[in-house]
Amino acid sequence: MIEVKNISKDFVSPKKYPGLKGAVKGLFSNEKVVKTAVDDISFSIRKGEIVGYIGSNGAGKSTTIKMMTGILTPTKGTCRVAGINPNQNRKENAKNIGVVFGQRTQLWWDLPLGESFTILKEIYDVPAEDFSARMDFLNDVLELQDFIDRPVRTLSLGQRMRADLGAALLHNPKVLYLDEPTIGLDLVVKDNIRRAIKQINEKYQTTVILTTHDIGDIEELCSRIIIIDEGKLIYDGSLANLKDTYGNKRKISMEIRQPWKLKELHLEETFGVGEDGCSTEFIEETNSFCVTFDKHRIQVPQVLSAVMEVTEVKDVQIQETELAQIVKEIYNHGTAEGR
Amino acid sequence: MNACKRYMRLYRVLAAQFFKTVMQSKVDFLMGLFGFFFTQIMGIAFLYLVFDQIPSLQGWTLDQLIFIYGFAQIPRGIDHLLTDNIWLVAWRLVLNGDFDRYMLRPMNIFFQIIAEKLQPDALGELLVGAILVVRSLAKGIVTVDAAHVVLFFVSVMAGALIYTSIKLFFAALAFWLKTSGPFLQVAYQMSDFAKYPTEIYAKGVRFLITWVIPFAFVAYLPASFFLKSGAGAGVIGFEWVIAIVFWCIAYYVFNRGIRVYESAGN
Amino acid sequence: MGRLLKIYMPFASNELKRQLAYRGAFYLFIITSLFSSFISYYLWMAVYGSSGQGVLGGLTQNEMVVYIFMVYVTSSIVTVSLSTWVSDDVVQGTVAMNLIKPIDYRLSLIAKALGRVSFQFLAPAVFVWIGLEIYKVTVLDMAPVSVMGVVLYLFSSGMSFLLFVLFDFCFGMIAFFTTYIFGLRMVKEALLGFLTGQLIPISFFPEAVQRVFGFLPFSSMIYTPVMIYLGKYTGRTLAFMLLRQGIWVLALYGLGSLIWKMVTKRLVVLGG
Fold it and tell me: Closest chain B residue to C57 measured between Cα atoms?
């Protein structure tokens, strides 16, 4: 369904100099700064897949999505969506895709939601019978009828997101791009949105690509994830595989009384593991001592007792590794192998 | 043909929506209308005061100048009514990335932009223009025959297209500059020069408003054709040539701009 | 006085800094605002050429050139969109916030306006002014303005500035009563163009109209300082004109205070 081949995007901006003198200098200088937002990325996505597209802020997620939707022209490389090059054939491509940018609505701010749908029906040339059938389905999964008569600007964030999702699906697109679809929503609404995405995917075999920072989105929706960092693709594979490889870490942070005694502590030797089995970190401001370790090889009480032997502990927190941490770990290790 | 029908249908839907919102705030609408109307009336009052001192201005009578002034308002008003949203492209849609939404829909982008907004304030300009043209008819200073009536509408359309092209060209600079509002403002304001016969200006100014930012072709030059003993019909043909050339340039630059559009957040 | 400066100067200097930051856009607006001066210039040159008379409305052709461009200089010292700030504050509800602070809302606006006009004056107007003087002496063969003339002009313009901002404050108060001030502002600007002498010297109006204008504050805003610059007022007339400006400043100050009192009462009642 989607073929992305060696795609890159550079942003060129004039060089800025600091200070007032710099501002004047900038007026006459011709120097340019090139920032490569996406660097030689390739992947392909089959029909009906739900793919999580992950990376930290500024990693190039949105840039990639914008190239696939035809908003941005790639500097190098090509991409095809349902056999169409979005840049050479923007209008044809637009018929095949639906897009939701979580931060920004595609709807008409001052119009009642229902009117927005009427306009979209004309824009996408949806036949009348399809339109009513689709609206029934969308009402079912997104419960739009509760606020269909209200102007978009009066909707709550959750309602607006449901409305936007509905608007993106009205013409039954082959591919659905979701950029941060659950950002800022409460748990119940998040759950609704996720369920709706799943249902749509099952019913229409819609291919879904979503970017998110929310581990829940990934775990509930995505069978496959792609991770990019600083514009480069660093992981492309199943979620299960990723968790097996990186998700066996656990982290304990302890607020301690006698930080100077930490020198006496040699956890790696105590447990007989290498650096990837156990690592430590001390944060001076809060006096917290953090231990990250392999949960299959070391147990929590073992760590606690080892630390408590050398120092008094005021407070303990135990964290499962979150996807965000896994991702961070992958960044540190460079490229990960996908299976 | 089918696509054309679709565009027409969509435009109707959007326009109907727009009128609904306007009707919800009738007072706002009437105040805006009155504001524009009043500004134009003051422009006419100014001419009256000036002509209190002189019988004619370089051979032009007060009535003739009022016709030129009124005629100029019509293409300006039409463009103002239909394409006001272009200003937003120049000021902020490119800058804040809201331009994205036009790129995501399977329709012509320029069409989407202008279809999204009608500017009812423009009716104030159209009203003044119509009144002044009718007044000139009553005074018997303009030629009235079938050819002139037809060419009147032909000329007004070309004039509106020239306005739109100039706006589109300067708005398109936003794709490179992020915001081009101030430039558009300067260019648009130059239309004020065209309210009077261009002969009163120095050569450089005349060249500028005739060939570079061709507002002279919107107002003074075609208006002189409709006045008795005025220019030949060729000027209307020339107005169309100018309109098409400038439209092509503007539309080309606009499309080039779309290719370098960087969206927001980078 | 010193304390007052300490409190309100930051409003002025902030505005000046803000304008400097956007100077690129601002310069383009300057060009636009000079357009209308040049259109006037060419139009009047054609009018004098067609009239066959040396003096129109009490001004020679050369004096008209000075008039047109000194109107430009004077409006950059005098006019500022203070009413827009008021209506923005009303719409965003920041006026209520200003009531809590121990500062005078009107004074803070006037300080901000001062920052704006000093930028307008320093950046383009002063150069237009100098250019005009050079043009006067070299091309028009007129005598340069005297030091006394400059002093009187600047003094009168200062009064005009106060007059204008105090008036515009009152106008901005309309925002409390209607949400839609845009159309009204257009009407105000079109009217002011006439009443202040910005578009055409007031001496061009019929006698009766001129007399009516004499009872309004507007001609004191631009026409008076420009005529002083042209040296049209001397002796008792000059004193009378300056006195009239002063009286209007006081009157509009009083009117503004009155309206403000009314409005804030309303604000408290409505809980805005």
Answer: B53
| ipTM of the complex in this document | 0.84
Model confidence over B52-110: pLDDT tens digits?
888 888 888 999 999 999 999 999 999 999 999 999 999 889 988 889 999 999 999 99
B213 contacts in C (CB within 8 Å)?
Answer: none
Chain C environment of B33 (Cβ under 8 Å)? 183
Mind listing the domains of chain A with CATH numbers? 46-243 (3.40.50.300), 248-320 (3.30.70.100)
| DSSP at C55 | E
Residue A108: its chain B contacts at CB < 8 A?
17, 116
Neighbours of A318 (CB within 10 A): 12
CB contact under 8 A, B38 and C190: yes
Q: Which of C24, C35, C189 sits opposite B192 (nearest CB)?
A: C35
The pLDDT of residue C150 is 94
Q: Which residues of B touch A119 (CB under 8 A)?
A: 10, 13-14, 17
Mutant choice from C23, C35, C179 vs B, greatest count of B C-beta within 10 A: C35
| pLDDT(B262) > 80 | yes
How far does B58 lie from chain C, in Å, by closest CA? Answer: 6
Q: Sketch the domain layout of chain C as residue ranges.
A: 11-270
* Residues C188-247: tens digit of each pLDDT: 988 999 899 999 999 999 999 999 998 999 999 999 999 999 999 988 999 999 999 999
Size of interface B-C (CB pairs under 8 A): 104
Whether the pTM exceeds 0.90: the reply is no
Residue of A nearest to B20 (CA): A111
User: Which burial class, exposed, middle or buried, applies to B211 when counting CB atoms under 10 A from its CB (0-12, 13-18, 19+)?
Assistant: exposed
What's the whole-number average pLDDT of chain A?
A: 83
Contact B13 A35 (CB under 8 A): no
* Torsional class of B172: left (φ above 0), alpha (ψ -120 to 50), beta (otherwise): alpha
pLDDT tens-digit profile of A124-163?
A: 989 999 999 999 988 888 888 889 999 888 888 889 989 9
Min Cα distance A57 → chain B (Å) is 10
Neighbouring CB atoms inside 10 A of A96's CB total 19
CB-based contact, C42 to chain B, within 8 Å:
yes
Q: List pLDDT tens digits, range C119-146.
A: 888 777 888 999 999 999 999 888 888 9
